[in-house]
Amino acid sequence: MNTVTPSRPDHRPTSGEPGLLRQVFDKVVVEQVRAGRLRSKGLPPGVQPLVTITLVLYGVLAAVVITGGWVRRLFAVDSSAFGLPAELVGPAIAMTTVLVAILITAGMHAPWLLRAAGILSALLLWIAVWAATDPLTCVAAAIGLLVIIGFQVLRRSQAFVWWEYAVNLAVVGAVTVTSVVIALRPALLAGQTDPSLLITSVVLATVVFAIPFTISSGAAVTELAFSTSTWLVELFGRRYSRRTQLWLIVAVAVISWSVVLWRFSRSPLPLLPLTLNLLVTAVALACTAALWLAMDRYFDDRSRVAGLRVDNDTDVADLAASFRPLAIYVGIALSLPVSLNVIWSAMERGIAQLLAQAGVAVTPQDLATRLSRLAGLDDALSLTSDLLGAAIGTVAAVAAFRRGRRGAAELAAVIGFFCLLRFLSGLGMPFLDFDLNTLCAVMLIICTVVGLRWALQHRLTTNRLHALGVAMLLSAAVTGREILADPIGWLLGSTTGALIVFGLLWNLLTGADHANGDSPAFPRAGRTLAVVGYLTTAMLVAAFDSLAVTFAIDLDSFVELGAGVLGTALLLTGLWAVLDAGTRDAATVEARRFAPIGAPDPWLDHAATPSPGGGQAWSPGRGEQGSGITPGTRPDQPRNGPPPQWRP
């Protein structure tokens, strides 16, 4: 079982203590921002101005996403392909050029994958604006590519200097302007080129780097709902009596059941398909529970055999921290086939233009069409995405498992399982594509049965009451995500745009902590420029998607993918974690969470010794008895050194 510290005795707020909502906001937002924000102190010279320029562009694009519907009305749009006015050609090319130069500069001081991504971004941009009918544009693109590669070779072992960006911007800008002036401008003036098609082609040059962040943005609201549920119940329980807590849980259950039953009553499906859907969903959830439980018990057994205290990440408050990097990695896997499709299409289109000049007629096709014909499946690309997501989830689970990171391993395994369900559903297996209402109903049934069992057995202790409250709120959050997103979407004119802006802003404010590090293989300058560059690139794609009447790529599907796969996996992992903690009558949130690291906390001066009746007996001591752990120290972090490396 997971070793967590039992809750402290009931605490009543004093006159100088912040209110409940203020405390929840501090835990959910303020502390996350403090820990994960980008820091300017210690940045290498020349990086700060580039970061400032990029973040200003980020803010402008976010404002465009928010006001996209109103901005679109300011321009007269004709019958162009995507409904983008010709006035946006210049801004689209300029902003894309600036961001491509940022990505190239970041890649110069990064591992080879990011280095290749930066070079690829320039190549895709030049393919979007070149004209194979004019040899000069082809020569300019080839020379520009060679200059960028040669410059990176010359600077590969050097520290960052500000003029690296100036060189990259000059090269990218020169090649782009050459193509625009020689070929595209005359074609636009003569009416031979659709401006909206040109804008879309330019923006799509960076879409391959934006899709992973779009997927993770879809899960950001779920992450916020997850953290809010955890801390709201925990802090509420420390301020109010058990009777008040019980009434709150009953109210949440009644409201959640009312919403679910109301939605089921409006479903067009007959009773039998609804029942079958519920049963299949229950079986799927039982599989995730069995997977979670098997890994959890194996961690416990191996830690006892090895005599080690492994990382207790199944503390619910820790799951969100493990979720963020997992969301990016799985998002990259899920978007990789789509990104390859965009790259393939651009390359094949450029080659077809060159062959046309040699008298060879070739009809370019995208990778999705070719794969579907080869595999004999209608949606081979989507199936490949799901299979890759399942593979990355499994690999991440094994990696975290071998490092003794309990919560990260369990969360990655559940994410991989949901990707596998999507893959099987895409192959045609019925009822596996269950909706959120069905999932919420099954989770509520589980919580209701467990709560009634504890109540009837007179085992509804304070810890179990907290666990039940968190479980109920997590179940309600499955459908409550829509309730949270819809008002924002109504205000901004687009639910998808609202989720993307919120998710990208949340990633920038809370997920940039790794950019504050430094290493010889990945210096801080490269980390910082990569974070702001790729997030701003994602915002660029979202901005033009909000301005277009129709867009070449469906961002809504990627947002829904992040919410449906990543977000739901987080909620389910949290559900099993809190119910397991309740079964053992342990706290859902560790004691170390209630004091800043290194700060004294009076109630932490007493070690918790669980009594047979519910874990409320307290004896003098400091930290956890016999463990040598001081307040603010992780259970796997000894005083005199780093945590032991644990392998199964």
Automatic annotation (TrEMBL):
The protein, known as: Uncharacterized protein
Keyword Heme: no
Residues passing through the membrane, by range: 47-68, 88-105, 112-130, 136-154, 166-185, 197-226, 246-265, 271-294, 326-347, 380-401, 408-424, 436-456, 465-484, 490-509, 529-553, 559-579
Disordered, as annotated region: 600-648
Superkingdom, natural source: Bacteria
Species the sequence originates in: Naumannella halotolerans
Keyword field contains Transmembrane: yes
Keywords: Membrane, Transmembrane, Transmembrane helix
